[in-house]
Amino acid sequence: MVLFSFLILIFWDGVDRNFLIGNFDPSKNTDFVVINPEFTTKSEIYMHSKAYEAFKTMYKAAKKDGIQLTIVSAFRSFSYQNNNIWEKKWAAQAKNNQHDTITLYNLLKYSAFPGTSRHHWGTDIDLNSVSDQYFDTPYGKKVYKWLN
Q: Is the Cα torsion angle 8, 18, 122, 106 positive or negative in sign?
């Protein structure tokens, strides 16, 4: 959270608040591009164009080393982060009848609070899987090692 606050202070001047929190339509933002289907399992998902160019360079290097990278998540709006990720995970954790502080702590280990995710900026992506178990498989470990 401290890092995010710092980034806001650095970039706030001239940056639209709605952009920072992911409250916009990437299809109407000229800095965003649709990800080519060869790189993703989804249709009509977006990335910031500069991050996308960097990904394509990484993709080629990975392919040369026998690693297949597939984008499974990219830009997420505030609404998506809140409704499809945060609220669902909160409801699942709340079933444990634990204090809200514990629930919050557990969720923040793996999910950004809506409005603070770099997915909102189109600069963060999830590769190959959003499941931790994938990276415990032999191939998942190979991908993880390559990424590191």
A: positive
For the entire predicted model, the pTM comes to 0.83
Residue with tokens 């009509």: 44
Q: List, for residues 50-106, the tens digit of each pLDDT value.
A: 999 999 999 999 999 999 999 999 999 999 999 999 999 888 887 777 788 888 888
DSSP 85: I
Tokens 């809140």 — which residue? 82
Instruction: Tell me the C-alpha distance between 11 and 27, whole Å.
Output: 22
Phi-psi region of 89 (alpha: psi -120 to 50; beta: other; left: phi over 0): alpha
Q: In this predicted structure, what is the pLDDT of residue 11?
A: 53
Report how far apart, in Å, the C-alpha atoms of 146 and of each of 58, 69, 114 are.
Answer: 11, 10, 30
Report the C-alpha gap between 43 and 37 in whole angstroms: 7
Alpha-carbon torsion 128, 131, 134, 135, what sign? positive
The helix (H) or strand (E) run that includes residue 58 is helix 49-64
